[in-house]
Design a protein that fits this description.
Distance between the termini: 13 Å
Largest sheet: 4 strands, antiparallel
Structural class: alpha+beta
Mean pLDDT: 97
Number of domains: 1
Strand content: 25-35%
Strand order of the largest sheet: 2-3-1-4
Shape: globular
Order of helices and strands: EHHEEHHE
CATH topology: Alpha-Beta Plaits
Radius of gyration: 14 Å
Number of helices: 4
CATH class: Alpha Beta
Oligomer: single chain
């Protein structure tokens, strides 16, 4: 497994709604992500900047293409578009982060 971290950005005033939607995440979306090779997925919020920090473990053979065209994933992106920064296809704007330290 490899670790993957990235940031995303919330729109102002959407903190509670973002948490609510993730507290109620669709079971079928969780299953899709898990089957694609995404595990131990956490998202943290910097309340001062509205920056979301996500970290997940990916199976060695994980490939983004396995989920990008999935209709449930696309539906989730559409659902989240009103509360976070998104690309033209409604996928979240993400900035990958380089790992500079890890301690087991």
């Amino acid at each position: 497994m490899k670790r993957h971290a990235f940031t995303m950005k919330l729109k102002p005033g959407c903190e509670e709604e973002y948490k609510k939607r993730h507290d109620e995440i669709w079971p079928e979306l969780k299953e899709i992500l898990s089957e694609a090779g995404i595990h131990d997925y956490s998202i943290f919020l910097d309340e001062d900047t509205l920056t979301l920090f996500a970290v997940q473990k990916l199976e060695d053979d994980y490939n983004d293409e396995d989920i990008i065209d999935n209709p449930i994933v696309r539906k989730w992106w559409d659902y989240m578009e009103d509360i976070m920064e998104t690309n033209p296809d409604n996928s979240p704007v993400t900035t990958p982060l380089k790992e500079v330290f890890h301690m087991d």
